[in-house]
Amino acid sequence: MYILDVQEAGVTKKYSIAEARKALPRLLHEVEDGQHVEITRRGRPVAMVIPLDEYLRLASDPDGFMKAYSSWRQTVEPEDLALPRDFFDELRDQTPGREVEI
Prior knowledge:
CATH superfamily: YefM-like domain
CATH class: Alpha Beta
Strand order of the largest sheet: 1-2-3
Radius of gyration: 24 Å
Largest sheet: 3 strands, mixed
CATH topology: YefM-like fold
Number of domains: 1
Shape: elongated
Number of strands: 3
Mean pLDDT: 83
Helix content: 40-55%
Order of helices and strands: HEHHEEHHH
């Protein structure tokens, strides 16, 4: 199940169910333009109307990444993936930090 954060989604319009019935063509144009529309009943959110491409992305197979990763791993030899033991030691800055008074 996906939870869509209404604030993050950029809801630009809120319609009651009655308003949505009357304004359906305009509501759909807003969604086609990439906006999210919230449908409310008695002031409480009950549905979101989002662009189809966004819905398809959210509804896609959540295991898709793992399947792709597993397929890729089968094409690579494990020894080709090995890193030297000190690989990450060279990446970290070894200088001491600054002194701070608490």
